[in-house]
Amino acid sequence: MNAAVAGLSGELVWRALEAGDLDAIYALHRAAIGEAVRPEIVKPESRDFFAGILAGRGRMIGVFLDDVLIAYGVLQHALPDYDDPRPHLGLAADAPIAKLAGASVAQPYRGRSLQRALIAARVAMAPESHILFATSAPANTPSWTNLLAEGFAVRALRPYYGGHLRYVMVRDGTRVVSRAERLVVPADAGTQSALLAAGWRGVEARSVKGEPHILYVSEHADA
Q: Is 80 part of a structural domain of the chain?
């Protein structure tokens, strides 16, 4: 897939990434997370993680400008037990799942909707029968905003990756008929956890007086 992006003089080339791209992938990952790694916001990955994905544990898509990798997205099929969301979501142990397991965009090319485009590209790559999920830190507003915009819903809020809170966001084709609504700031973990335990879902990003909120909905009018 080729595409032009506003503000760029060249044409972007999208293609599946291969083992020969590993050096470029890892260099972009390290540059994207920066010198001050903040695992409470973004989980740093090892070179071996990407090598495993390219060796068959998943698939990757890359975006190139003038033959330089400027963005990538990971779709992971083989998941470690600690990353399996099915027990927390009431799903059958054999329900087919895949994870949108991270994406990076080089600093000069951020703000051009590439993160959201990478989400859409990985949704298109995944088998239709699979339930898709992603994890996102409440403090990582661009991440969960783009996931919500592409049809993912907040279904759980749990400690991951060393105890850091993450939204578990799911795209399974189901929708809640909203009969009750609540706007909640991402920093309010207590309220969100209570709503999610009662079956509410976070479905939309909203801005209230310039502050990001998540719209939670319930199918029960008396919730």
A: yes
